[in-house]
Amino acid sequence: MGTEILSIKDKSLFLWNDSLKINDYIIANYYVETSLDPEFTAIAIAMEQSATTTLLKGFKKFNLSDSTARVISVEVMGESEEIILPQYRLKTAVYTGNYKDKGFYNCLIKIAFPIANFERSLTNLWNAVGGEITRMGFINTTRIIDIDFPENYLENFKGPLYGIKGIRDRFKIEKRPIFVRSTRPAVGLKTKEMVEIARRVLRGGFDGVKDDELTVDNSISSFKERVKKMVDMIKRVEDDTGEKKFYIANIIDDPIKTLKLAEIAVKAGVDGLLIAPAIQGLGMVREISKLTGLPVLSHNSWVEFLTRHPKFGVKENVWLKIQRISGADMIMLPGNFATEFIDRELEIECLSACFSKLGKIFPSFPVLAGGKTPEGLRDYLKRIGSGDFILIAATAVDSHPDGIEEGARRFREAWKEMEKGK
Amino acid sequence: MGTEILSIKDKSLFLWNDSLKINDYIIANYYVETSLDPEFTAIAIAMEQSATTTLLKGFKKFNLSDSTARVISVEVMGESEEIILPQYRLKTAVYTGNYKDKGFYNCLIKIAFPIANFERSLTNLWNAVGGEITRMGFINTTRIIDIDFPENYLENFKGPLYGIKGIRDRFKIEKRPIFVRSTRPAVGLKTKEMVEIARRVLRGGFDGVKDDELTVDNSISSFKERVKKMVDMIKRVEDDTGEKKFYIANIIDDPIKTLKLAEIAVKAGVDGLLIAPAIQGLGMVREISKLTGLPVLSHNSWVEFLTRHPKFGVKENVWLKIQRISGADMIMLPGNFATEFIDRELEIECLSACFSKLGKIFPSFPVLAGGKTPEGLRDYLKRIGSGDFILIAATAVDSHPDGIEEGARRFREAWKEMEKGK
């Protein structure tokens, strides 16, 4: 087929114009490397991620103007030669633009997506902004670096049921960071062992315990028995210590099973639930939060496959923002957060995704994990700007020479010492 | 803390030995680039993706030997210097090995994961083999290049309800490829327009139509009305043409909504359902297939973010195999399949994932899409080795100078001409 037939018609349908209402759209910001003309690439993305086709012979003109994604801006930042994704060409309209002789244009592209195309569905929103972009053979890489939502759209989302203030009220912890340990060993423990390990850590002064994301419902430790015994233990430790304690249960599983586990967990009286949206679907946190009324922790399983490549996938703050909108009261931060290896700018963007004003949606608790120590508390506090974070610690607790109860106590003491030393 | 405390203890728990039963494990094969000693890296992966910790002071030795992931082999293929993922180091045991002075070891690593850690849950299986591997700061990149399942484990999975033979019986199509068009324009159409477009394409000789993955349940076209009218139209065209026709409805949405849409679709009498597992969760195809008894098409939304980078993520055939096990009767092939830009070896691996013996699990129909033409049929046939494929075509249908009915007819004619010309 000739280029004429294949070329993009009705380009104006895919370009922003000022007669459109900005509140009817969300705006996705992409970093894109492309071997095609940058403006053509942007239109191709808008087209493939909305109408795809606009005209059909033998049909009256369709009324698509409220449904097409629209390019707002294209900024060429530079050029590059390194191939990141294997290139290919297909015989469709979007491949008919002018190709660069060699290498790629590096661009920032802003595209507006009509809310009508996904309405209140986060799954469909995610499909609209990303679904098949990396299936376009001329794209060398793309990274979603931000998504802007109009306030009226955010009103469709309850967001975190509790947020930072609500979690603090519920868990009765003022100002300071919240200390949590994940079940370790994460697999193979009998329920009795898990309960005893958790009990000691809580007695030492930790506020909560959570199932590891790999601690499943299996024949070694059935979920039903586990949640019951953990909740019983929590009550006993609360009586012993006079402090509120909490337990977050892992309900990561196939969808119907997750709904069943959630029901069991609610009946048992757990304090929160663990979900892994990157493998359970973008909509799961919201559904579970709505169904159970419990705080939800959004775990990072498979998330770094999307976020860790600096030019590919989804920028960390975008993932965090989507988690917050979906209703995660607590969200795992990137693995390099609060280390010397992360750019301060990215740390700030991550915190902003959790804390900044986002319609009426509550802020989410950022969750720090991975080799965190009592000695590091001053640094974490400085980076985060307040005690509004959850710290999941295992290594430093578990390796304390006097045992895990002392290991846990050391975190609380270190915090007190730091406060006094201020 | 000193290295002694942090270093990996009980290494033997994370190494394969011949007293273990191979049928109690699945085996994941990784390509890994790492700045740490290769064997140490492999043990670190096995450890982080199973027990994490093995010993706790003040506790008797835990019985973890049936629950730990086990390194089967580590093969160093070479070295590289290019940084793919930003590196970082944390203060946990897995970071305590010997680092390479500069650059990375490129390795093939085989790890056995105990079935006990996820049992029949595909979501938890996926979490076990991939969950936090890219959260390890010394890993420069990793790609899951294969997963082997013992036959006894596969018996937990029904797989595709119909498979190739079942789909052919159901859709009454012998031997030849199955021709399908997706709704285009994909957004903004009224139901009436969709129905009329689909009707013409089916009259032209296409076997089926499907909703586009972006065609949602919204105020422009409600799902309930759409599926009813599409099914009515299918019946009329069947009466007119004397050929069986089919309609696949898009139920991609947030989880509870997807279950509701599935119910509506079943009641309306649709012929199949469209699911996007990469954004809806790995378990969704299986649940929907079980709940509805309908054929399921596994769509590629967001899949290329996982599969297209040649050294990062998940190899295409692994994704296809997981889809087949999860019950997808039809699975989208990679975007560069059947082009001059794909390695033949990868094509064969993709086909093998769909067709090869896999316990008692039926083969899945591979789905070719993206700029496919009538003229290309001979090439597709040659590459796939038989007519056992579904071809989704839009551009070549839509751009036919005599309209879409003729555009569709051209595919059937081209197939007949090709058969005669054999």
Describe the structure.
The structure is a homodimer of 422-residue chains. Chain A has 422 residues and is α/β, with parallel strands linked by helices. The first copy, chain A, has two domains: 3-154, RuBisCO large subunit, N-terminal domain (Alpha-Beta Plaits, 2-Layer Sandwich), CATH 3.30.70.150; 163-420, Ribulose bisphosphate carboxylase, large subunit, C-terminal domain (TIM Barrel, Alpha-Beta Barrel), CATH 3.20.20. Chain A has 16 helices and 13 strands. Chain A has helices at 3-6, 38-48, 122-130, 151-154, 163-171, 191-203, 223-241, 255-268, 277-280, 284-292, 303-307, 316-326, 344-355, 377-384, 395-398, 404-420; strands at residues 25-34, 70-80, 104-114, 139-148, 178-182, 208-210, 246-250, 272-275, 296-298, 313-314, 330-332, 365-369, 390-392. In chain A, the strands form two sheets. In chain A, strands 5-6-7-8-9-11-12-13 form an eight-stranded parallel β-barrel, surrounded by seven helices. A five-stranded mixed sheet of chain A has the order 2-3-1-4-10. The first copy, chain A, is elongated. Chain A starts with a helix and ends with a helix. Residues 1-6 of chain A have low confidence and may be disordered. At the A-B interface, helix 3, helix 6, helix 8, helix 10 and helix 11 of A face helix 3, helix 6, helix 8, helix 10 and helix 11 of B.
Search tags:
homodimer, 422 residues, alpha/beta, Alpha-Beta Plaits, TIM Barrel, eight-stranded parallel barrel, five-stranded mixed sheet, 16 helices, 36% helix, 18% strand, elongated, disordered N terminus
